[in-house]
Design brief:
The protein is mostly helical. The chain has three domains: about 100 residues, Fumarase C, Chain B, domain 1, CATH 1.10.275; about 270 residues, Up-down Bundle (Fumarase C, Chain A, domain 2), CATH 1.20.200; about 70 residues, Ribonucleotide Reductase Protein R1, domain 1 (Orthogonal Bundle), CATH 1.10.40. About 65% of the residues lie in helices and about 5% in strands. The strands form three sheets. It has a two-stranded antiparallel sheet with strand order 1-2. A two-stranded parallel ribbon has the order 3-4. Helix 5 packs parallel to helix 12 and helix 10 runs parallel beside helix 12. The protein starts with about 25 loop residues before the first helix and ends with a helix.
C-alpha cells in the first residue's frame, strides 16, 4: 500500500503482536480516567523538555517540532477530558493513549517524542519527588512545633520511665525534644533520599542509550533534576529511588508511634497527666462519659502502613532481573500513597501538640511520689558520707524497699528510714541532715541539678532548643532552595517553549 502522507498513519503500539487482548471500551476508559488527571500533566512536561532538545539538536524538523510543542502547550483539564471521551482501547496504556491523542492532533509525527527514549523515565522519579517535597515540608513544620512545645514545657517536671517504671525525673519539654531528635535524624535521611530521587534517567533508550545525537543534560535541567543518571541500564533497573525513601519514613513513623502510645497512656484516668481538647477527641455512640483521644491510634496505624510498603517493595525488587521490569515500575508506584499516609500522621501529631492540655501539678505529684529521685539520693549519700557509690546505691534500695512494703511513697523516706537501711548495709546509721535529704528527694531540685550536656535541666533544654532552631533554619533554607529550583526549572522550560513557538 502506497501512502502519500505518512502523517496520516496512526499505528497502534502492539508492534509484532497479533490478536493482543485489549480491555473493553468502558473498562479501558475508566482505568485511563482514574490516572489521567494525575499523570498527563507530568508526562506533558517531560514531552516538552525532550521535544525542545530534539528541535535544538536538529534531530526532528523544526516545523514539526513546533506543531508538537503547540499541541503540548494546550494540554489542560479540558484536553484531558477530551482524551477520556475519545479513548481508543487499541492504545491501552495511558502513556500511549496520550500519544494517540497527540497523533489525532498533529498526525504520526507525534510519535517522534519517543526518539532515543523509553516512555516511563523520568516519570517515576518525578512522581516520587512530588510526594517527597511536601513530606520534607511536613517534617520541617513538625520539628518547629516540637521545638516550640519543648521550650514551653521545659520546666514541666514529670516522671521519666524505663521499662514502664519510674526511672528518673525529667520534664515534658525534655521528652518532646527527644522526639525532635529522632525526627530530625529521619528528616536528614529523607533529604538524602531526595538527592537519590532527583537524578534524571530520561533519554536512556530502552537500556542501551541511543544512536541519535541527543543532549540528556538539557532536559534534565528543564525538569528540575540535579544531574543526569548516566548509566543507561541503571536508569531502567534502579529501585533505590523508592527503597531509600521508605526507611526514612520508617524512622519517622516508629518514634511517632512510640510517643503516641506513651502519651495515650498518660491521657488515661489513672495517669491523668495530659488531656486533649474536645476538638480532636471522639465521643461514643453508647457510653456518654467517653472522650476518646483516638488520634493517638490513627498515628500508630501509620507505622503498619509504612512497614507494609517496605515489605512490599523489597519483596518485589529482590528477586527480579536487573533491568526494566514490572516489579521495578510498581516499587516506585507504591511509595507515594504511603508518603501521603505519613504526611497525614505528621499533621495529626501537630494537631495533638496544638490541642494538648498538660497537667503540670499532676505530673509533678507523680514524680515526687514515685521514687524516681532515688539516683540523686544515692549521689547525695556519696557526696555527704564518701561511701562508695555502689554501697550508697544499696542503702537507698533498702530504704525504698522498706517504704514500699509499708504501702508508702517516696515522700515517706526520711532520715530514720535511711539510718535503718544503713545499719543493715554497713552496720551504722548515717545521721544525715533532714533538709539535705529532703532536697535530694525533691523532683524539682533533681531536674534543676541535672544540667550536664543534654540533660533535663530547663536551662540545658533551652540551650538545646536554641541550637536546634539554628540547625532547623538551615534545613528550612535548604528546602526553600529545593522548591525554588523546581519552580525555576518550570520557568526555564516554559521560556524555552515560548522562544521556539512564540507567544
Amino acid at each position: 500500500m502506497h501512502v502519500q502522507n505518512y502523517r496520516d498513519i496512526k499505528p497502534d503500539t502492539h508492534s509484532r503482536l497479533r490478536g493482543k487482548e485489549i480491555p473493553s471500551l468502558e473498562e479501558g476508559r475508566k482505568a485511563f480516567a482514574a490516572l489521567a488527571y494525575n499523570e498527563i500533566p507530568r508526562a506533558t512536561k517531560v514531552h516538552k523538555a525532550w521535544t525542545v532538545m530534539l528541535i535544538e539538536r536538529g534531530i526532528i524538523d523544526k516545523g514539526e517540532g513546533h506543531e508538537i510543542l503547540k499541541t503540548l502547550n494546550r494540554i489542560d483539564d479540558k484536553a484531558i477530558e477530551e482524551m477520556i471521551q475519545s479513548y481508543d482501547p487499541n492504545f491501552y496504556k495511558w502513556r500511549v493513549q496520550f500519544e494517540r491523542y497527540l497523533m489525532d492532533k498533529v498526525g504520526s509525527i507525534a510519535g517522534n517524542i519517543n526518539i532515543g527514549r523509553t516512555l516511563p523515565p523520568p516519570l517515576y522519579r518525578m512522581k516520587l519527588r512530588e510526594a517527597v517535597v511536601p513530606l520534607i515540608q511536613a517534617t520541617l513544620e513538625f520539628r518547629q512545633n516540637l521545638l516550640d512545645r519543648a521550650e514551653e514545657y521545659r520546666d514541666a517536671v514529670m516522671p521519666g520511665y524505663t521499662h514502664n517504671q519510674h526511672a528518673q525525673p525529667m520534664t515534658f519539654g525534655h521528652y518532646l525534644l527527644g522526639l525532635y531528635e529522632a525526627i530530625d535524624r529521619a528528616a536528614v535521611q529523607l533529604e538524602q533520599a531526595y538527592d537519590v530521587i532527583n537524578i534524571c534517567d530520561l533519554g536512556c533508550g530502552a537500556l542501551a542509550g541511543t544512536s541519535f545525537n541527543v543532549d540528556r543534560e538539557k532536559p534534565a535541567r528543564f525538569l528540575g533534576f540535579d544531574r543526569v543518571m548516566e548509566h543507561t541500564n541503571d536508569c531502567v533497573a534502579s529501585t533505590d529511588q523508592a527503597t531509600n525513601v521508605v526507611p526514612a519514613m520508617i524512622n519517622l513513623a516508629i518514634p511517632m508511634s512510640r510517643v503516641a502510645n506513651e502519651m495515650h497512656w498518660w491521657a488515661t484516668f489513672e495517669f491523668n497527666m495530659i488531656e486533649l481538647t474536645d476538638a480532636i477527641c471522639e465521643a461514643s455512640s453508647m457510653m456518654p462519659q467517653k472522650k476518646s483521644p483516638c488520634v493517638f491510634e490513627e498515628i500508630r496505624c501509620t507505622l503498619g502502613k509504612v512497614l507494609g510498603c517496605y515489605s512490599d517493595i523489597v519483596c518485589r525488587a529482590q528477586n527480579t532481573l536487573y533491568g526494566d521490569t514490572i516489579e521495578v515500575y510498581e516499587a516506585s508506584e507504591y511509595v507515594p500513597n504511603t508518603v501521603a499516609d505519613v504526611i497525614k500522621a505528621i499533621n495529626t501529631f501537630n494537631k495533638v501538640l496544638n490541642n494538648l492540655i498538660v497537667k503540670k501539678d499532676i505530673m509533678l505529684r507523680h514524680a515526687q511520689r514515685g521514687f524516681s529521685t532515688a539516683t540523686e539520693l544515692a549521689a547525695f549519700l556519696f557526696r555527704e558520707t564518701h561511701l562508695p557509690l555502689r554501697v550508697a546505691h544499696a542503702i537507698v534500695g533498702e530504704s525504698v524497699h522498706e517504704v514500699w512494703e509499708k504501702g508508702g511513697t517516696a515522700t515517706d523516706i526520711n532520715t530514720d528510714v535511711v539510718d535503718r537501711a544503713a545499719v543493715q548495709i554497713i552496720g551504722k546509721p548515717l545521721q544525715l541532715a533532714p533538709k539535705g535529704l529532703a532536697r535530694a528527694l525533691d523532683a524539682t531540685h533533681f531536674v534543676e541539678a541535672h544540667k550536664s550536656q543534654g540533660a533535663v535541666a530547663p536551662k540545658e533544654v533551652h540551650r538545646m532548643v536554641t541550637r536546634r532552631r539554628q540547625n532547623l533554619k538551615k534545613a528550612q533554607d535548604r528546602h526553600a532552595k529545593r522548591c525554588e529550583a523546581l519552580k525555576a526549572a518550570d520557568q526555564r522550560l516554559e521560556d524555552a517553549v515560548k522562544k521556539l513557538i512564540g507567544g
